[in-house]
Design a protein that fits this description.
The chain is an all-alpha fold and about 375 residues long. It has 18 helices and two strands. Helices cover about 70% and strands about 0% of the residues.
Length: about 375
Amino acid sequence: PVAAVDSMTSSSCADSTSQQNAAPTAESLRRPTWVWLRVVLSCATTIALSVGLISFNKYLMTPDHFPYAVFLATLHMGCCSVFALALWLLVPSLFSSIADREKYALLDRRLLLRGALPIGIASSASLVCANLAYEHLSVAFLQMLKETNIILVYLFSLLAGLEQFAWWHLQVILLAVVAASLTIRGELHFSMIGFFTQFFGQVCESIRIVTMDSILSGKRLDALSCMLIISPFGFLVLCSFVLVTVLLPDGMVSPRLALPTSAKAAEFAPLLLASGVLAFALNVSILLTIKYTSAVSYLFVGVVKDVVAVLVSVVALHETVTGLQCFAFSLQIGAVLAWSVLKSQPEMLRGGVAALMRRFALGRSDCDGEEQPLVKKTFLV
């Protein structure tokens, strides 16, 4: 369930951390070597854990291994809840929003019922759909589909009043739509069931992101506090669903949504525990990556992760990617990068699209009167 795991800590809950790194300065570019090494290490660890969890879930969801989507999602959400609670008991200072009395006072019943509960429901649905999609579609194709989240999040943000329409928004979104259409067109083993399962999961994930942005971001909660608050709600939602499936008569529940036998669970117990630990480690790694860089930089790390995941699926899992999909995936990456850079540096639009393309071609940003490497202005440390 990497969709929810990746975004659990990379969404607006981390805004208060990333805003401290919002403006690049000359001082930030002259940090010691060990600071740069720390950034590289945190980014590389996040990419490795993310790709590892994707491959792990794909392996577990194979029909002859452990194809129980709801149980696996419940396990991951439960591990995140338990490990976050244990970490809070051991090192409470890491949970700054809970340790701060003023911020803790904002966590009232209204916030939990109107914020944490809907987010927990959306996260749970996204997790289950992500697991189910592994049975029908390849890892490479699923990673390409996930790039379309930019479209869904933007549309829901417009409906929620969190975004204002701009023509450059439309241009990037149209590029993403065209790229997604070409990706689907080039898929050799397309499954309608898998596609709609993944699409519904991405809709739930986008709703979760927008809800978190509209309700929780104003509370300025740190990422670990968000995980500690939201994960138990998701876990309870999934446990409720499991209870319903147990009470229903035999034959009314799909085998993929049912519980595994005790013998099956015991057989895969070590792998399941390792998967839960990996999911929590990924959450913490994402938090550290955002802390040491910025939220915008993490978007670039996510793009690299998607590219690595596609490469691993081709090399290690022997999945097939067509030339059309490679071209479309490149367009998707370009759309995500353009969106990330333009959202963080809207002044780059001065002079029109032609000037923007020139800056990208030269790899520089001179819109502030002083030329600076574009990469240094984006990856903040």
